[in-house]
Amino acid sequence: MIRVPLCLLALGLLQCAPASSAPEGVGEHTEAVAVPGPWNPPEGVRRAAAAQYVDVVDPPNVSPHGSCPGSDPFATCTHPACTRAHPGTSELDRYIRERWSYVLPYGTYNCRRNSNNLSKLSVHAIGRAIDAGIPLTGSRDADNTLGDAVANWLIANAAYIGIQRVGWDGMWWNGERGFIPMSGDPHKNHLHIEMSIDGSLRRTRFFTEGPPAETCPIVCYGTAAVAEDCSYVDCAASGQVCMSDPVRCETAGPPEPPESRFEPGAAGPTLSTIGPPTRFQFLGPTRVFDTRAPADSSALVRSDGSGERLDATRTGTVSSWPGLPSGADGVWVNAATVNGAEPGFLSVHATGPMPPTSTVNYNLVGARSNAAPVAFTTGTGVVFDTTGAVDVIGDLVGAFVQDGAGFRVAGPLRVDDSRSIDGPVAAETEYAVDVRAPAGATGVVATVAVIADAPGFITAYACGSGMPDVSSVNVGPGVTAGAVVSRLSADGRVCFWSSSDVELVVDVTGYWTPDGALDYQGLDPARLLDTREESARYVGRLADNQVVEIPVQSLAGAPANIHGVVVNLTTLDTDDHGFVTVYPCGFDPPLTSSLNYGSADRPVVGSVALSTLGEDGSICVTSLRRTHLIVDLLGVFVPNADRPDPPLPEPPEPPNPEEPMEMPDGGVPGSDGGDPLDGGPSSGVDTGALAPIDSGCGCRTTGAGDALPFALLLGALLFRRRRIGA
């Protein structure tokens, strides 16, 4: 039997009980303790809870893929999403019953409906819920002597274990919203425990490092620091910063700076244009090759003449593009990787040496994809270079030509968020979106974020034209964002088809129109920023919500009068789920995203994004959570000499404080393409453990700053809602 200490929070302090101790009367109690009314966690528990944030991922709707007879929520359902308890769920269930011997096994799996929302499956049905039975008192009230100890421990360690909800004695703790009253069944005789995706799949520290040690670990939960003696300090309330987790005082190294350091003297790259400015013409979209089947990949000519998948020594080149007009200057393609033998990256580039940038970063789980605008250098050749053995898929979307549609910048503007309607976008059905296009627009460029519980892909196309046999964004667990270029129907709509039930968030960044005043100018890919490099403009990981400004117009070799950019954004070494937004400097950050990150199986994430420039010729980038950031410049938009000057950018859509959106997540490892990595030589910065300075282990002083009133801090943490780009 595993024995670990129980840290009970009382009077604002965590106090460790010996590992062998148990709540009073366990196994032989004769007088249990019931507290009238719902469970009321003490202040210390609430303070620890306020420092936890765990994304809550609900199960799918019952229909259209399942059925549940009658109105009884406990009747057995049929649904393809139903699965028995995941490994982490079963392991935590056993651990709880070993640690608290009075807990009764009330079960984990049951393919049924949610008793509070009959349109959805229960979390028990998808293998991520535990019912932990608590003996009732003689009065049939909840036994707070026994149940509170389990509930308090689960909540205080929610992020460490991977707990998204706990329900006990008339109260819910929700990992996104804190404590809320319970309606319906008050759960007086059992705790309802829901695990996060990562927790159920044994990806959290509870499973990788083991339960808390015999003495309380020195860890951080949000702004809360827990020292070795279990004393609890709220760093933010005392004007300090909580250090990274895990931390051990005796092995501490140099502290990580609180934010990325600005280096005003850092030299930027020299830009080099490829060919003349061009317009855009839609082709297909058409699947050009897929190395998973030799018969489907003849258009990809391997460097060694074989018909096999690509690897570090075998590149592939496509020169024959279906429907490519004569004299085309480049192509827009979507590239996906799948079945990688080891983590690596794919670079899609024009004929010539491989640039110091990447297009798709992949690992051993699922498939990854990204967009790739490529300007031709010689002929019509596009090279696919990869660092390891992997299958590659290429879809042609359009061509850069001299006579076609021009670009019109917009926003970024959120035009659709399926989370605001009832239920997700149903699998294998058309979901139409009005992208608010100007009159005469033929196409749109947007960042589309997909929130999925299952692997798969989405395809974007003009409504009424029929779904093409290609993918636009390949998705895995959680949130995947990608740039989508699509034709429009005559009434200005784009249709999305998804292989599974998903939520979609669509942020428009521009339109293709016959009279568009901007042309696309291809560039040799250039790295504008890599925060891992000491020579970068910003050095070290970005802090939460830190904004970095990147000048583009002032770079050597930059074309005159740049109005917009096409960049590839990459994040790595992130602290938590979050998103990155790129926008014109001089405006407030919009309520949109350009890239989403955070799932454990996607440690490095990238996506192409478009943005206008601010009046000073710069783009700004911000991240919700701490992360290293890489920004690669692929091309720019400049005015067409024969058309009127385009207007200056309008302010992006501002955040709405009345209706802030939250960061979603979800899913299990995927299978058909969707996420990228940096192709540069750096392997990351090892910051080591962080040194405790002032106020004991776990906190670091930030210098100036008075202590915040604790009530104000607690309110902000309990009721915060994350803005989201997806």
Please write out the topology.
Layout: E1 7-10, E2 13-16, H1 43-50, H2 87-99, E3 104-105, E4 113-114, E5 117-121, E6 129-133, H3 144-156, H4 158-161, E7 163-168, E8 171-174, E9 178-181, E10 190-195, H5 197-200, H6 205-208, E11 219-221, E12 224-226, E13 232-234, E14 240-242, E15 261-262, E16 279-290, E17 301-302, E18 316-318, E19 330-338, E20 344-350, E21 360-362, E22 368-375, E23 382-386, E24 391-401, E25 406-417, E26 430-434, E27 443-452, E28 456-462, E29 473-475, E30 478-487, E31 493-498, E32 502-513, E33 518-530, E34 538-539, E35 547-551, E36 564-572, E37 578-584, E38 595-597, E39 604-612, E40 618-623, E41 628-639, E42 699-701, H7 710-719
Antiparallel strand pairs: 1-2, 3-6, 4-5, 6-10, 7-8, 7-10, 8-9, 11-12, 12-13, 14-42, 15-34, 16-24, 17-18, 18-23, 19-22, 19-24, 20-21, 20-23, 25-32, 26-31, 27-30, 27-32, 28-29, 28-31, 33-41, 35-40, 36-39, 36-41, 37-38, 37-40
Question: Helical percent range?
Answer: under 10%
- Beta content: 25-35%
- The pLDDT mean sits at 78
Q: What's the Cα radius of gyration?
A: 27 Å
Question: Could you please describe the fold and organization of this structure?
Answer:
With 726 residues, the chain is mainly β. It is 8% helix and 34% strand. The protein contains 7 helices and 42 strands. Strands 3-6-10-7-8-9 form a 6-stranded antiparallel beta sheet. Strand 4 and strand 5 form a beta hairpin. The N terminus and C terminus are likely disordered.
